[in-house]
Every structure is written in C-alpha cells, then in structure tokens.
Amino acid sequence: MHFNTASHSTSKKLSTLKSCIQLRASISSLKVAWRKDPKLDQAIDNDKQWRLCARVVKEVLNEPGQVIPLRYLEKRRERLRLPIKIQTFLSRNPGLFDTYRDRIRPKSDSVEFIRASNRLRQFLEEERRIYLENEPLIVSKLCKLLMMSKNRVVSADKFVEVKREFGFPNDFLVNLVPKYPEYFRLVGAPGEGKSYLELVSWNSVYAKSVIELRAEEESRLTGIKIRPSFNWKLPPGFFIKKEMREWVRDWLEIPYISPYDDASRLESASREMEKRNVGVFHELLSLSIYKRIPVPILGKFCEDYRFSNAFKSVFTRHSGIFYMSLKGGIQTAVLREAYKGEELIDRDPLIEIKDKFVELLAEGHRWRTEQLDLQRKMIEKDMKLVATRETELN
Predict the structure, then answer these.
(1) pLDDT tens, residue by residue, 155-173
(2) In sequence order, which residues have a C-beta less than 8 Å from that of residue 328 and are 6 or more positions away?
(3) Residues in contact with 99: Cβ distance below 8 Å, sequence separation at least 6, in sequence order
(4) Distances (CA, A) of 224 to 39, 217, 252
(5) What band does 2 get if pLDDT is binned at 50, 70 and 90?
(6) Same domain flag for 255 and 316
(7) Phi-psi region of 228 (alpha: psi -120 to 50; beta: other; left: phi over 0)
(8) Which of 77, 152, 190, 217 could be stapled to 199 by a disulfide with Cβ–Cβ 3.0 to 4.6 Å?
(9) Angle, in degrees to the nearest 10, between helices 135-148 and 271-287
C-alpha cells in the first residue's frame, strides 16, 4: 500500500513536470515573423528633429552658469549625435540660443559663447508650470511603478534613467519625492552608489490598470459587466499563421491578471505568467508619455518586474497588442492601441511640454524663412536695379 502511494505520488510529479516542460516548449516555440509597420515607424521618425534640439538644449543648460563656449559644444557633436556643425545647427534653429563673446580665462582671447535665449527661458517657465499642474499625475505614476515591482522598491538611478519616458522632471528625486513622505522613502544618495526608492504605503486607488479602468467604464456606460481584456488587432495586411491565431484566441480567454496582483504564485513558464507579463508591459507603455519605450530600457527592469531574459519575444508574439520598431537601430516597444496610423491618440497631459517646445522651434523656423525671403527679395531688387542701369547706359 505504501509502495502504491509513492508510485502514484511520483507519477503525479512526473506528469506535472512533463506538462510544465510542454507548456514552456509551447510558449517558447510560438514565434511570429517580424513585420515592418511603416506608420508606427513614422511616428517615431516624426519626433527625431525636436529630440535632437532637446539634447543640445539639455547639454547647454547642464553647464555651470548655463553657458558654454561654442567650440566646446562643437567637440561634443558625436556624443550628441548631431550630424551638422554647431554653427549650422544654430542658424537652422534660431530662437533657442543667443551668442556673445567672452573670455574663457581672464587673460585669454575672447571667444563665442552660447546661452539660452529669452524665448527658451520663457519655455522653461512654461515647463515648470506644466509639471506643477500635473504633479498628482506624476506622483501616481511613481506609485504605480513601485506597486508593480517585486518588493515595492526600485533603484533610484533606474528611475532617473527613465524619467524622460514617463515625464518626470529632472529634480523629481530632490524636490518632488520629499513632498510625499506618505508614499515614498528615498534610501541613499542617487548617483553615489546604491540608492533606492521605496513605497511607504499602498494606495488601492492606484492599484487599477488602464485595462481594468477601461472595463469598469464600459460596464458603467452599458450596464453590463465587462471583464478586463486586451485590445488585440492587427493592422491591414498583417497576418499570422493559423496555429498562432488559435493559441492567441485561447490565451485571450484566460482571465486577465492585474499587474498590481502578487505574481509570486505563478509558474515562470505558464500561460498565466505570460498573461501577467503582457499586462505589466501594457501598463508600463500606457504610463509612458508616448506609449512607447526603448526595449533596452525595459530590460533594465527584468529583476524588478520578474521578466525573463527572453522578454523581447513577447512583443512579436503578441503583435496585435504591441509593435517592435527597429527605427534608428534601436528596438522600441510600441502600444498599438494608442496610435491611429502615425498619430498618437492616447495623449498624456505632460505632452503639452513637447508641444510648447515644438511651437518654439516652429517660431524660429518661421522667422528664418521670413529672413531668407527678405534677403532673396532684396537681391532680386538689386539685380533689377543693376539691369535697369545697364539698359540706360546702353
């Protein structure tokens, strides 16, 4: 009797192990060929010019006194990924900086310096206003990022690295975090060794994902209980094999697992863990300003959010939810539902900062066009005068 029980127990363990191996194999073997999405690639390309200008602005503002000799900035072109000379950049983007002459050392010859223009300083004031108005949103994002993490604690330096993706101000660890001791505790000094941001208290209001909130809103509007689910839709001309379609259909039927739920009970290679991971990626992209994040940046959080080292395959396997762009030689995960063609329709309130910066650049470009037109007209006028005089002389 004892022997039979042991055999049954061993058989059960082997069966469980076999099913886990099959499950791991079934998920890892399901591959979807990558397909280019020109419109989502174009959405990334559209931001290239203003991002380039923003890098140069940041470089100058980070200097002591927020001024820099023009020749020093010229030497940093490669690091700034600036394909043109600084002088050319300044002439193409008037209104960002003023140039003036000064000495680097007391007895040295004067050289050209650049500093922020009045219009750029006005923009920086607008930026501060927008950050202040959206402080509750920024606090909720920080809380959510910590609430999804394994131990409700994340390296402060990692948050500094992703501040641009989520719209955090440059000084958020110094000026914003200390204002909310009921939510955050900063341990150590960022940039000086190990430093962590801890979640002090759990706020159930923040513990609902975009997908859960969407289902609640639909339930309220229709009067019918709607279960949380992913929007899974491929763009026109995008097809996947029948085997994969069937797998996705069955996978979508698995109950939604909130990224804020404890995932420690889930098997690492199970379909449920896949459901949870897709939910975390969906939420991370939803919290980001442009609903897209470079994959190398997501990779820094593998341990914090329990992603496997092969997490990138999720974005092609679930190509109806995500798109993996290769634009600019960088893999970028994009949330499909946030875009209509190349237009971002799910707009974060903090995008207003980018809009104001683009307006500043457009003003400078208009002024440059007007000046070029004026010069052209003056040249044409001079040429006509010369032609008239030559006619009279003849």
Answers:
(1) 999 999 999 999 999 999 9
(2) 44, 48
(3) 70, 90, 112, 113, 114
(4) 35, 10, 20
(5) very low
(6) yes
(7) beta
(8) 152
(9) 160
Q: How far apart are the first and last CA of the chain?
A: 127
Given a cut of 50, whether residue 24 has pLDDT beyond it is no
Sheet with 110-116: list strands edge to edge: 67-69, 110-116, 97-103
153 and 115 in a common domain: no
Is the separation of the CB atoms in 93 and 361 below 8 Å? yes
Which positions ≥6 away from 52 have C-beta within 8 Å? 80, 81, 82
Assigned domain for 35 exists: no
| 200-208: Cβ within 8 A, 24+ apart | 202/147, 202/152, 203/143, 203/147, 206/140, 206/143, 206/144, 206/147, 207/147, 207/258, 207/260, 208/258, 208/260
Q: Give residue 230's region: left, alpha or beta (phi > 0; psi -120 to 50).
A: beta
Please check whether residue 269 is in contact with residue 23, taking contact to mean a CB–CB distance below 8 angstroms.
yes
In a domain, 11, yes or no: no
pTM of the entire predicted model: 0.85
Tell me how crowded residue 140 is: count the other CB atoms within 10 A of its CB.
16
What single DSSP character describes residue 238?
-
What's the mean per-residue pLDDT of the chain?
87
In DSSP terms, 294 is beta-bridged to: 332
The domain tally of the chain equals 3
Share of the chain above pLDDT 70, in %: 91
Q: Is residue 59 in some structural domain?
A: yes
- Predicted local distance difference test score (pLDDT) of residue 1: 37
Q: pLDDT digits over 33-75, tens only? A: 788 999 999 999 999 999 999 999 999 999 999 999 999 999 9
Taking the C-alpha atoms of residue 201 and residue 152, their distance in angstroms, rounded to an integer, is 10
Does residue 36 lie in a domain region? no
Using an 8 Å Cβ cutoff, are 298 and 284 in contact? yes
Whole-number Å distance between alpha carbons of 13 and 23? 15
